[in-house]
Amino acid sequence: MLFVVAADDGWSAQSEEHLEIVTVLGRRITAAVVTKATPAGPARTAEVVDDVRARLARVGAAAAPVLAVDAIDGQGLDELRATLVQRLSPPSDGAGDDGEGSRPGVPPAPDGSFPRLWADRVFSVAGAGTVVTGTLDSGRLTRGEHVAVLPGPTRGRIRDLRSLEVQVEVAVAPARVAVALAGVDHAQVERGAVLVGLDGVGAPAGVASEAMDVWLQVLEHGPVGHRGAWQLHLGTAHRPARVLPLLGDLQPGERGPARVEVAGPLPVRIGDRFVLREVGRRVTAAGGTVLEPSPSRTRRGVSERLEHAEALEAVHEAGGLASRVRALVELRGGATALVGLEAAVGGPLGAALEDDRRVTVVDEVVVERPHLEQWQAAVVAAARERTGDDPVVTHDQLLSAVEAHGCPRSLWPAVLRAALASGEVEEVGGRVVHRDHLDVYRAGLRARQEQLLAALAGPELAFVDADRVVAEYGLARFELQPLVDGGQLLQRDGLVFTPDTVERAVEVLDAGPGGGGAPFTASDARQAWGLTRRFAVPLLEHLRATGRTTFDGTSHRRVTG
Known about the structure:
CATH class of the largest domain: Mainly Alpha
Mean pLDDT: 89
Helix content: 25-40%
Low-confidence stretches: 94-110
Largest sheet: 6 strands, antiparallel, barrel
Structural class: alpha+beta
Number of domains: 5
CATH architecture of the largest domain: Orthogonal Bundle
CATH superfamily of the largest domain: Winged helix-like DNA-binding domain superfamily/Winged helix DNA-binding domain
Number of strands: 29
Number of helices: 17
Strand content: 25-35%
Strand order of the largest sheet: 4-5-11-8-7-12
Shape: elongated
């Protein structure tokens, strides 16, 4: 940032507002220049230089050189060029000359960060189509790649790419760039929109939001709160805004968390800096940093707001990407979708997540390990609390238990897998039982199975409807299956019966209507068995399917030999 003040005019109200904006945006002043030094004269120029230096010092920019220059006779221009080269060059030893840890410079875009270009002009050019010019503030754009326009669903392809009026294949942030778009009408893009890349599934790698949680820094012009007409400026966009401080109106000089609602979706990322102006007085009232571009519902009640304010402060104070991600995951309840988090941050988080042992990625969800362990413990506890002769727990019951502890539904399968892998619970036919209850469960299961087998034994042809097995004998279908697999029970058309019933039915046919290979009808068999059609027809189907009888479309016959 090069801060300019004319020697003849001196410091003005506009200079003051520009300095306020630079301060709340967190921009570093590389140097300040006092222009028109020759016509203003040495005394006036020295007076303005001292004044500028003092004003910069008050906002923590005392390290910025203040140089007197004149464009007509060249006074101070060589010194200004040398200063800019020195101040903008990468450090050679890891530390700058002003005690700030690194020389300011213009850093390259972080490796792998998603591209974002703020549009400031949009027009049509014959043969090129829609052209968007603006500042590429992160990532890189490549000729031929597909991009999306936020806000809005518009997508297109980069037909041509120019930087500093030179055609390039790739533009790397930070840079002024002109992008010719194919497939996009110029009416679909306006000043304040952004061009973003697409993520791995073809969705826009960005967030457009009408509400955001922020950290405000209020200037000295007056309080900032829910009353007042505010306008938010971010990038090249501006929106009418409503400000809702979490802990009451912020007074001049104060800082704190707030919810900001804007009129119309605004492309925004975590860490974006913005300016808040008061419309009526036309003054810059505050600035701030976006902490959460996709906040949940508005917090109600003092305790909820206090808790939310503390979580936002943790995000604000986080001193690095990994720490900020962890604080943001905590703010979002301990778990959040990876793709949404990367869009909000503006780049892939692989390295940051690998370096932080407190968070992990499960099924494309970033989750805090303590929360994952808590939800796993909820599964185990719910299974342990289920006692009695039938201590199994359904998946729905377990899902309700973990959701009560804040687990997102999308994470439930992973939480169950983790609980099963711990060995503290086991899955039995789609249900879960605690290891302490396994013996009780197995003994109760055997008793219920034996009760059913006893009911089906005897000289009569006995059948049980499968629905009655659950209601009267307490056997779930998965608990019935081992008896079927073991050959102790048979199932046909919703009926349960034993192999002995089949043998007795065959004996009745051989001694009756099917004796000697004689043909017989379904009615003949039903009457011989003394059964209704509900039981006779499935039994006949079973005999035919197992080769004990044949059917020619009219009559059945016993197969012998």
